[in-house]
Amino acid sequence: MDKALYDTGLAIRKQVLGEEYVDRAIENATDFNRHFQEVVTEYCWGGVWGSPTLSHKQRSMLNLGMLAALNRQQEFELHFRGAIKNGCTLEELRDVLEQITIYCGVPAGVEAFRIARRVLDDLGLDQK
To answer: Which of 36, 15, 6 is nearest to 82 (CA)?
Structure first.
């Protein structure tokens, strides 16, 4: 394992997904999935998210589209929260969800808006 890449990935992962979520994922790792957690942290978060070519905001918007297309609602919710932390505005997120609706289909868009509403309610963000 590349320790510097892992440490970079760990910092970015906590910044985007939240320290509590990441700490829980790592602390709850077992012998069976510990290496998986290390790989995800090092390569996904350190190697890819750590690249300066795309901003974290841009990566968040890309992830939302891919996760909606793959019907991965739990990860979509996690990354919708991350997109807000990464500076996506509600207007940008609405446009992303509308683009998801057009390219992934109405059912994917309905689910994306449903999840977004739940997250926005949880965060107390005004939706009027």
So the answer is: 15
Identify the domain containing residue 78 by its residue range: 56-123
Same domain, 110 and 91: yes
Average pLDDT (97-115) is 97
Both tokens of 90, joined, read: 């509600």
CATH no. for residue 113? 1.20.1290.10
Q: Does residue 128 fall inside a structural domain?
A: no
Both 109 and 62 in one domain: the answer is: yes
pLDDT at 127: 67
Write down the residue that tokens 């739990």 correspond to: 74
What is the rounded CA–CA span in Å between residue 102 and residue 68?
12
The rounded distance, in Å, linking the Cα atoms of 14 and 31 is 22
**Phi, then psi, of 75 in degrees rounded to 5:** -70, -35
Under 8 Å between Cβ of 39 and 77: no
In total, how many domains does the chain have?
2
pTM beyond cutoff 0.85: yes
Q: Is the pLDDT of residue 81 over 80?
A: yes
